[in-house]
Amino acid sequence: MRIPRKTPDVRVPRLVGLMAVDARETAEARGVLLAAPDRPAFDLTVVDYVVRQYPLPGSEVPRGAVVTVWFDFGEGEGGGGAGVREPRLPRPPSGGLQRELDAPGDPCELLR
User: Fold this and answer.
1) What is the rounded end-to-end Cα distance, in angstroms, of the chain?
2) Rounded to an integer, what distance in angstroms lies between the CA atom of residue 85 and that of residue 83?
3) Burial class of residue 27 in the structure, from the number of CB atoms within 10 Å of its CB (0-12 exposed, 13-18 middle, 19+ buried)
4) Using only C-alpha atoms, what is the Rg of the chain?
5) Is the peptide bond before 107 cis (omega within 30 degrees of 0)?
6) What is the DSSP pairing of strand 60-62 with strand 9-11?
7) Per residue in 61-111, pLDDT tens?
8) Helix (H), strand (E), coil (C) string for the chain
9) What is the spatial distance between Cα 38 and Cα 71, in angstroms, rounded to a whole number?
10) How far is it, in rounded angstroms, from Cα 20 to Cα 69?
């Protein structure tokens, strides 16, 4: 029988991608507190999505530690757009399904 060690440490949950209300509930269930420096009224924030967090998910922290979350991207971190569009090399072969399949024969052809 394996006995788990007794420790006040908890693992930080993954909060990135969650709405603010869900992030608060998840953090509370895991025993950590949340802080959001880019939202002065964080308790009233509901539908904004978490884009960054510190410490990273899976880190062990003492129960009641503060996890900082951000709802806006910082300078140069992203924040929309389609990203860089550049040609990918090598290009995929042309032809699509025609290249993979044989040309169909005459459906009315007599079988011998």
Assistant:
1) 72
2) 6
3) buried
4) 26
5) no
6) antiparallel
7) 999 999 999 987 666 666 555 556 666 676 666 665 555 556 667 666 666
8) CCCCCCCCEEECCCCCCCEHHHHHHHHHHHCCEEECCCCCCHHHCCCCECCEEECCCCCEEECCCEEEEECCCCCCCCCCCCCCCCCCCCCCCCCCHHHHCCCCCCCCCCCC
9) 7
10) 9
